């Protein structure tokens, strides 16, 4: 088997010619010198071998890296497949368990729903019975209140009739009492009028007697009043507006028949209606 650098020796020589230190100036003599100089050729061959060896090593390392990467990728894919398979298995088991639990819950819900429906039916039946019982009680109460209202109306009518009878008797008694009071008031008025008439008669007699006595003592009073010996800080006045002598004034008069008359009638005053 030929080595890789031997296969591309011509390209390496061409590259060495073009990239050498004397590649800028090219002549047939220099080309001949390069072709005939064994040391230079060996040198360039060694350099080329080193470069190609490095290139091969680099490509080999790259290939090894690629192979390792591919192997790692294959292993990773295998691990992934195993992991995915295990996860699928676990997920399938979890799903199966959830489905089983969901079925159990559904059965429980259906069972509870059946029980609930039965309980609802029972409650509805009991409620209907309660409604019927309430309706029956309401009807009984209505009939009872109707009878009670009728009895109350009859009792009110009886009480009203009794009250009317009692009120008639009461008013009759009141009328009799008022008539009696009115009669008493009339009698009292008659007595008052008779008393007033008697008092008027008494007053009339009093003033008549006083007028007679005044004629007797008039001259004496005129004498005392005109001389200034008799002062009247108080005293009564008769119907004519003249002063009536008082007890104090009588005490200043000499003992005489006229003085005795003054003492007897001087301090009197006419009686009032209430007396």
From TrEMBL:
It comes from the Eukaryota. Residues 1-14, 149-171 have a biased composition (Basic and acidic residues). This is Uncharacterized protein. It comes from Hemiselmis andersenii (Cryptophyte alga). Residues 1-36, 139-171 are annotated as: Disordered.
